[in-house]
Amino acid sequence: MKESLFIIWQEEDAMGIPLIDEQHRGIVSMINTLYYFMKRGDAEREQQRMLEMLEHFFAVHFIVEEELMEAAGYEESESHAAEHERFLEELRQLRASIEQVNEPLQLLKSLKSWWLDHIKVEDAKYVPAVRKLMENV
Ligand SMILES: [Fe+2]
Questions:
Q1: Is 71 inside any structural domain?
Q2: Does 7 reside within a domain?
């Protein structure tokens, strides 16, 4: 079987906030593992497990981000948190419907593009405030 990754982590996407960067790399790793099981096509149980892991990990990752944004006094933290909540809801729906979906890869693609956009646009905005906070603790 041809080895391939669905997302390749780019070092330029690192934010210089070690805990957040590690969590982002962890998410890339989980999405790639989900992709591996999706390609197999006969691994529904494993796909469910990976989706559960992703859902739990995203939830705690978002809590960390929201706490840091809050502590840093970042002014858009509420709308950012609302984006997180919307995304978690989509993830829940994806997990609930994955067995009925004909094109799960299509769903994985939208998950990937939402998340990469989110990192590059929304997360990038809190970086200066949170980095400053981290330097002072
Ligand atoms: Fe975020």
A1: yes
A2: no
What is the Å distance from ligand 1's center to 43 Cα?
30
- Distance from Cα 133 to the centre of ligand 1, integer Å: 17
3-state secondary structure of 98: coil
Report pLDDT digits (tens) over 43-81: 888 988 999 999 999 999 999 999 999 999 999 999 999
109 part of a folded domain: yes
Per the structure, how many domains does the chain have?
A: 1
Q: Report the separation in Å between the CA atom of 57 and the middle of ligand 1, taken as the mean of its atom positions.
A: 13
Q: How far apart are CA 85 and CA 83, in angstroms?
A: 5
Please tell me the pTM assigned to this model.
0.89
What CATH number is associated with residue 27? 1.20.120.50
Residue 121 DSSP code: I
Q: Is residue 31 part of a domain?
A: yes
Rounded to the nearest whole angstrom, what is the distance from the C-alpha of residue 59 to the centroid of ligand 1?
11
- Could you list the residue range(s) of the whole structural domain that residue 122 is in? 17-135
Task: Count how many Cα atoms sit within 13 Å of the Cα of residue 67 in the half-sphere of its side chain.
Answer: 9
> Which residue is it, tokens 């693609």?
109
pLDDT value of residue 82: 96
